[in-house]
Design goal:
Layout (H helix, E strand, L loop, with lengths): L4 E14 L2 E14 L3 E5 L6 H8 L7 E6 L2 E2 L5 H11 E4 L11 H9 L8 H7 L15 H13 L5 E5 L7 H18 L2 E6 L10 E6 L2 E7 L12
Parallel strand pairs: 3-8, 3-9, 6-7, 7-8
Antiparallel strand pairs: 1-2, 1-4, 4-5, 9-10
Helix pairs in contact: 3-4, 3-5, 4-5, 5-6
């Protein structure tokens, strides 16, 4: 595996002020992520995994500590710099698909490729996730799993260096979820995009190069898989 460092966090903290109560979402996280790897981050609700993902993606900023993307210090970046970082380097896949109902699958992907620097064609991205025969269907004509795969195609079509996935199977049944995970694994394998999948589902762990467990706002464990498991062989 390419050991080129993509992300490095040191002493990363995040505190949310909720009136008289402070919520410490992250408590001094030290983390290194490398080019091309697929990392599964496990944690229960409230463990800090979504907060960490949002900071890595430039959707949020830390309260303290440092987060670097390659040689860029994201901890001190302003809104304009973070917007440029998200546009040029990051693809997001969320639990809910956020597709535009009035656009076909092809057009939903094209909405991103038209503003990207060196994108795939929408057709290539949809082929990658196994939807070559569903390109001209509207979201209402697609199953939940197919809609999520359109969302994956939209995220990878701009050829991001980083793909960040927040509970991508959370709204799906196990059979459909496996198809979505297989699409993410294929995208990682064929494009070399550093991929982070956060989930509370420990059954997903086997598909990652590394499994990082978060608890109470910090990393509580790490496991390296010598061989990634085929997502279609996962049992939930």
């Amino acid at each position: 595996m390419n050991r080129e460092l993509v992300f490095q966090t040191r002493g990363l903290t995040k505190i949310y002020d909720q009136g008289e109560v402070e919520v410490r979402a992250l408590r001094g996280v030290d983390l290194d992520l490398y080019a091309g790897e697929l990392v599964v981050m496990l944690g229960a609700s409230g463990s800090g995994k979504s907060t960490l993902l949002n900071i890595l993606g430039g959707l949020d900023v830390p309260t303290g500590g440092e987060v670097r993307y390659r040689d860029v210090d994201l901890s001190n970046a302003d809104d304009r710099a973070l917007t440029r970082y998200r546009r040029d380097h990051v693809g997001f896949v969320f639990q809910f698909y956020n597709l535009i109902p009035s656009l076909t699958a092809r057009e939903n992907v094209a909405a991103v490729t038209e503003i990207a620097r060196s994108p795939m064609t929408p057709e290539s991205a949809l082929d990658l996730v196994g939807l070559g025969n569903r390109m001209d269907h509207f979201p209402a004509q697609l199953s939940g799993g197919e809609q999520q795969r359109v969302a994956i195609a939209r995220a990878v079509a701009k050829r991001p260096e980083v793909l960040l996935c927040d509970e991508p199977t959370g709204a799906l049944d196990s059979t459909t979820g496996v198809l979505v995970l297989a699409a993410l694994e294929k995208a990682n394998r064929e494009t070399g995009t550093t991929t982070v999948i956060i989930t509370h589902n420990a059954s997903i762990a086997g598909m990652g190069d590394r499994v990082i467990t978060l608890s109470d706002g910090n990393i509580s464990g790490e496991q390296r898989n010598l061989r990634r498991q085929d997502p279609t062989s996962l049992t939930w």
